[in-house]
Amino acid sequence: MPLPHSYRGRFAPSPTGPLHFGSLVTALGSHLEAKKHNGTWLVRMEDIDMPRTVPGASSDILRTLECFGLHWDEAVLYQSQRTAAYQEALEQLKHGGMAYPCACSRREIADSALHGIEGQIYPGTCRNGIAAGRQARAWRARTDNALIEFEDALQGRVTQELENEIGDFVVLRADGLFAYQLAVVVDDAFQSINHIVRGADLLTSTARQIWLQRLLGYPTPDYMHPPIAVNTLGEKLSKQTLASPVDCNTPAPILLRALNFLQQNPPAELAGYEVGEILNWAVAHWDSKPLSGIMRITV
Ligand code: GLU
């Protein structure tokens, strides 16, 4: 068992393609923050969304992290192996009356829902039972008017009224797969993660995750959401926006670029150094403060 106060962080990529600059800066930020605190840094493969998972992408991502000197401290956890744990968490929610089956199709929700910060706000149609003759498709967690407040280390105080801003949200999808929101909470607790550093695009997911932590009796980690890399159209770098993979043949200049992205101003002399030495400098000088309040940076 880890010491109760020792820092445990993680990088949790979805293996939908090779590591690109956007995911590299997220990995680097979480690594530096963990190492600055003499912490343990883990990698977890979020390969639960099988339809989006690309064969070979997990091992490709791991190889790339290694060539950038980002070594993880314990065995990699694969979400595809964790279905029984997610099922158990869902049973716990059902048992407490905090999850219910939902028969609504996307179209029905689109027809009746308001638009919120993250797409449609589920109007609660099935909260008190499914209409006669309808089939359950997904399972949703009840939000019960919860007001969630937390302090993000970079983005400040965040307040979200779950029911009005998000609505009861899916924990088991209509295609039978567990939703990211449930899986991430179960695994962060299972791995005793107490510090989460990840892209600012996930800031709006955090309240749902804190709510699930409360329902499941898990502790809530500290959160830090550094800015994400976006292209000139303002789109997050991703496989969909055709971000190119980072090149393992020239890791040192890319690592320096990533440190510049993270506002660390690496000195010019570092240009001739190996990744290990650059990372040693970066851990010793890491300061997240210049990233305060920044949600995205164009690259
Ligand atoms: N797997 C998620 C992603 O790649 C990140 C999950 C997290 O860090 O909470 O966007």
Give a written overview of the molecule:
By secondary structure, the chain is α/β, with parallel strands linked by helices. The chain folds into two domains: 8-81 and 192-198 and 226-298, HUPs (Rossmann fold), CATH 3.40.50.620; 84-180, HUPs (Rossmann fold, 3-Layer(aba) Sandwich), CATH 3.40.50. Helices cover 32% and strands 18% of the residues. The protein has helices at 21-36, 57-67, 83-95, 106-112, 162-165, 180-190, 206-216, 251-261, 275-285; strands spanning 8-11, 40-45, 77-78, 99-102, 114-116, 119-121, 138-141, 147-152, 156-161, 169-172, 195-197, 222-224, 228-230, 296-298. A three-stranded parallel β-sheet has the order 1-2-3. The longest helix is centred in the first third of the chain and has 16 residues, at 21-36. It is elongated and about 70 Å long. It starts with 7 loop residues before the first strand and ends with a strand. It binds glutamic acid. Glutamic acid binds at residues 12-14, 46, 184, 198, 202.
